[in-house]
Amino acid sequence: MKILVTGGAGFIGSNFVRYVYQERPDWQITVLDKLTYAGNKANLDGLDKSRVKLVIGDICDESVVDPAVSDADAVVHFAAESHVDNSVHSISSRTVSPASSFASKTASA
Ligand SMILES: NC(=O)c1ccc[n+]([C@@H]2O[C@H](COP(=O)([O-])OP(=O)(O)OC[C@H]3O[C@@H](n4cnc5c(N)ncnc54)[C@H](O)[C@@H]3O)[C@@H](O)[C@H]2O)c1
């Protein structure tokens, strides 16, 4: 099984990655994460890179999302602007949320 975990360098995503890594040793995990203020590569430290691949990219970027989704058996979506303060202070860049954009891309795939 190959899974794609968006936002997998964030709090919940990285804990999910570690859970799957431990519980499903035969699964391949690809993390797609933009590494914003909330994402941290160190959250994936210690995981075998032959099983866990980090793709640094934006879920709003089709050129990144399309091949990643095509290569996966399942997608688990955690990428988000989870800090509400940022949405309030900079609404223009978040008018199209990563989640809604990603959902429309995967729905049409
Ligand atoms: N933390 C909680 O207690 C909690 C509880 C319930 C639900 N949730 C939900 O779970 C999801 C993840 O929460 P979290 O606490 O792990 O958030 P987080 O902020 O720690 O992680 C979000 C991750 O998404 C990445 N990201 C943001 N925009 C991106 C983009 N455009 N493309 C690719 N990656 C992008 C960030 O770099 C980060 O690694 C959110 O939808 C949140 O609302 C969280």
UniProtKB/TrEMBL annotation:
Domain of life: Bacteria
UniProt cross-references to Pfam families, sorted A to Z: Epimerase (PF01370)
Domain NAD-dependent epimerase/dehydratase: 3-90
Region called Disordered, residue ranges: 89-109
Protein family: Belongs to the NAD(P)-dependent epimerase/dehydratase family.
UniProt-listed PANTHER family: DTDP-D-GLUCOSE 4,6-DEHYDRATASE-RELATED
Protein name: NAD-dependent epimerase/dehydratase family protein
